[in-house]
Design brief:
With about 250 residues, the chain is mainly alpha-helical. The chain has a single domain, classed as Heme oxygenase-like (Heme Oxygenase, Chain A). The chain is built from 13 helices and no strands. It has helices spanning about 5-20, 25-35, 40-65, 70-85, 90-100, 105-110, 120-135, 135-140, 145-165, 175-180, 180-195, 200-230, 240-245. Helix 1 (about 5-20) runs parallel beside helix 12, helix 3 runs antiparallel to helix 5 and helix 3 packs antiparallel against helix 12 (about 200-230). The radius of gyration is 18 Å and the shape is globular. The N and C termini lie far apart (about 55 Å). The model has no long low-confidence stretch (mean pLDDT about 95). It comes from Prosthecodimorpha hirschii. Pathway: Cofactor biosynthesis; pyrroloquinoline quinone biosynthesis. It holds the Pfam family TENA_THI-4. One of its GO terms (molecular function) is pyrroloquinoline-quinone synthase activity. InterPro entries: Haem_Oase-like_multi-hlx, PqqC, PqqC-like, Thiaminase-2/PQQC.
Length: about 250
């Protein structure tokens, strides 16, 4: 990047990254939201997404540890409180488990991440490593996919509720709660990036961080599509619906 972008142009560039690379374009997401997956395929998605959901507060704690300004830490800290809750049974993961419970998965096995695809683990672990080792700016910028998640989540929820008789509103409680605060979180992250990405080099880092996060999300859906849609080959050790029915 040869020139320094204005804050507005930087935001526009970040939005362009998402327009080209965000997971709303992935075939697996489109099938899921359109109601074209079967119960086993939806179950595989929910199981694998559990690992990502469980690591979100870990990721946020890592980001928090990188922020130098107490005001920034206070703002970011709310994410951890909202994800982990103030007590037992109040976390975002607890709300997510309503979905895996509703799909008939054994909760103890879900929480032990049994059957999660290796690629899911690799992608999520790479995300944790990224926010641990890169600059605070890059760590925050990697969360900017939140700018687009509200629309995608709303479309997914409406599509799933309309198409799958094994999905109920209460089992999608995680997304209801997430929609209530995602714009606030995204606004903070965007303001932080605009404030701290003020050179050509730092702006390039922020944009690259956004690309990386899109790749993390996309690669998880790649793995699901290969294992459970086409060619439908779950790797050894992964959850296999055919084995569940034997």
């Amino acid at each position: 990047m040869a020139r320094i972008l204005s804050p507005a142009d930087l935001e526009a560039e970040l939005r362009q990254v998402a327009a080209r690379r965000y997971y709303h374009l992935h075939p697996f997401h489109r099938l899921l939201s359109a109601g074209r997956l079967d119960r086993a395929q939806v179950t595989a998605w929910a199981l694998n997404r559990t690992y990502y959901q469980a690591m979100i507060p870990v990721k946020d704690a890592l980001v928090l540890s990188r922020l130098a300004d107490p005001a920034d830490r206070r703002s970011w800290r709310r994410r951890i409180v909202e994800q982990d809750g103030e007590g037992e049974g109040e976390s975002g993961l607890d709300r997510w488990l309503r979905l895996t419970d509703g799909l008939g998965l054994d909760r103890a096995k879900v929480l032990a991440f049994e059957g999660v695809l290796p690629a899911t683990r690799f992608a999520v672990d790479a995300y944790l490593q990224f926010v641990r080792e890169r600059t605070p700016l890059e760590a925050v910028a990697s969360s900017l996919t939140e700018l687009f998640s509200a629309t995608v989540v709303s479309e997914r929820m409406s599509g799933m509720l309309a198409s799958y008789d094994f999905i109920a509103r209460r089992t999608l409680a995680y997304f209801d709660e997430r929609l209530a605060r995602v714009n606030r979180d995204a606004d903070f992250a965007l303001a932080y990036v605009k404030t701290h990405a003020v050179t050509a080099e730092t702006q390039a880092l922020a944009i690259a961080a956004m690309r990386f996060k899109c790749d993390v999300l996309w690669s998880q859906l790649d793995a699901l599509h290969f294992a459970y849609v086409d060619p439908k080959l779950p790797p050894p050790g992964a959850w296999n619906p055919d084995e569940e029915t034997r």
